[in-house]
Amino acid sequence: MIRLENVSKVYGADIPAVRDASFDIPKGEFVFLVGPSGSGKSTLLRLINRQERPERGNVWVAGRNINEMANSQIPYLRRTMGNVFQDYKLLPNKSVFENVAFALEVIGKPRHLIAQQVPQVLELVGLGDKEDRLPHQLSGGEQQRVSIARAFVNRPLILLADEPTGNLDPSTGEGIMSLLEAINGTGTTVVMATHDHRVVNAMRKRVIQLDRGIIVRDQERGVYE
Amino acid sequence: MIQRISYAFRETIASFRRNVTLSMAAVITSAVSLLLVGATFLMQRAFDNLLVQWRGDVGMIVFVRPDVTPEALKFVEQNLKSQPNVIDVDKLAYLDKAASFEEAKRVFAGDTTTLSLLSIDTIPSQFKVVPKTTDPELVRSLADQYRTLPGVAGVSLAEDEFDVISTLSGFVRTVTIAMSLVLLAVAVILIWNTIRTAIFARRREIEVMKLVGATDWFIRVPFIMEGLIQGLVGAMVSCVGLWTLNSAWTSGVAGFKAGTGVSSLVVPDSYLNGVMIALLIIGATAGGVGSGVASSKFLDV
């Protein structure tokens, strides 16, 4: 589903963010990217959704080399992916329903489909009764659930999560993780960047560890260390 | 499709409301600049009318000395009438001293020095001659024929006045066009800045839109429409202003006597309508281009 071949990304003159990274993530896998802040986890995610382009190497998503894709094709690539962030990135003046519906509106989904799919996905993330709330009326965990609902509402092939539990207390974080696991269970490939030991150690999934932009470990059923 | 259009309209209106002050500034600047552009066109057309009328009505004036003998006067008149091939005899007019003095008072209304030198006794009487040809060379040679006749004080060609007027109108045109271009540039920059501010205000929303796979055009269109509407509204305001100015001018000019020149300083309605349509197109294009450039510059992936 996702394949990196000797990918390098350099910011500025000589600050390497990712050096010679190669890995292969099959469809339906759940992968943790771990490592300290600044080790290149977020950059890897941004290379996969093509917010960044590598200086060297190739990134393949669903069988297509995305570095060779025309800019006009990128929106369609992104429709096959969901993104979840540490700071949720919800629109503060839109309700829970509108935030999720927004993701479908801007890709031109017809209204009756939106009216059908949004309540379904909100039910799935456990917010069926909070459709009309505004983000600031929700707890952090609930806001992250809205953001996951928005990422998943279009049934993406891939879900990219950048420190989704970073702002949450451990028990709330556990709830988010079981939600991501459930989404993974529907066949969606999940790639999650984190430095949360507890989460990684509890799940025992594949772990790719980065250190200053270099992949130092790639282990099935790994722990954080 | 309808959903996308309604989305674009909603976003445009919402954005307009978020930036009322800046939007108003952009609208007013484009209105003022377009009003100037329009006024330039109308003034130019009015000048042209005047010139055409002068050229058509009077080609040449033969001034007769104030102390001319009746015989010499008669000779000049007969001479003029004897050339119906070159001179439009029907339009030939003789202004005696009294009439010439009246005309001088009007022509030199702002020039008291010249006026004080003239009196009913010292003023030359004049023949207003309309040549049948409009070829300046032929008219000049015609004038030369009369300069040497006894009793003739001089011959003046309307061509000379014509040159003054066309130089003047050319100057006015250059200045007003330059001013309106500068103002138009300012309007485009203001629209550009409004759109930049609007994009900045919505950068979070735009980031989300990109991540969920909205196409660039989907994101861009509301901003382009916003700029286009700003330009168009500015143009509409300028049309109202231009129409009002033109009506006031036309009714003011209507008070002057026909044939005095001033009364020809009006433009036909069809021309006014054409100018207004041009202003609407210029306004919409300038606004659309300004915001299009801004939105592609600030919305890069």
How does this structure look, described?
The complex is a heterodimer of chains A (225) and B (301). Chain A has 225 residues and is of the alpha/beta class. Chain A has a single domain (1-217), classed as P-loop containing nucleotide triphosphate hydrolases (Rossmann fold, 3-Layer(aba) Sandwich). Chain A is built from 7 helices and 10 strands. In chain A, the strands form 2 sheets. A 6-stranded mixed beta sheet of chain A has the order 6-7-8-3-9-10, with helices on both faces. The longest helix of chain A is centred in the last third of the chain and has 16 residues, at 170-185. The radius of gyration of chain A is 17 Å and the shape is globular. The model of chain A has no long low-confidence stretch (mean pLDDT 93). Chain B is α+β, with helices and mostly antiparallel strands. Chain B has 2 domains: 2-54 and 163-298, no CATH class; 57-157, Alpha-Beta Plaits (2-Layer Sandwich). Helix content of chain B is 72%, strand content 6%. Chain B contains 10 helices and 4 strands; from the N terminus they run ααβαβααβαβαααα. Chain B has helices at residues 2-18, 20-57, 70-81, 97-107, 112-117, 136-147, 158-201, 203-211, 216-253, 269-298, and strands at residues 60-64, 93-95, 125-129, 152-157. In chain B, strands 2-3-1-4 form a 4-stranded antiparallel beta sheet. The longest helix of chain B is centred in the middle third of the chain and has 44 residues, at 158-201. The mean pLDDT of chain B is 81. At the A-B interface, helix 2 and helix 3 of A face helix 1, helix 8 and helix 9 of B.
Helices and strands in order:
The complex is a heterodimer of chains A (225) and B (301).
Chain A: E1 2-11, E2 15-25, E3 30-34, H1 41-48, E4 56-61, E5 64-65, H2 74-78, E6 81-85, H3 96-105, H4 111-124, H5 140-152, E7 158-162, H6 170-185, E8 189-194, H7 197-203, E9 206-211, E10 214-219
Parallel strand pairs in A: 3-8, 3-9, 6-7, 7-8
Antiparallel strand pairs in A: 1-2, 1-4, 4-5, 9-10
Helix pairs in contact in A: 3-4, 3-5, 4-5, 5-6
Chain B: H1 2-18, H2 20-57, E1 60-64, H3 70-81, E2 93-95, H4 97-107, H5 112-117, E3 125-129, H6 136-147, E4 152-157, H7 158-201, H8 203-211, H9 216-253, H10 269-298
Antiparallel strand pairs in B: 1-3, 1-4, 2-3
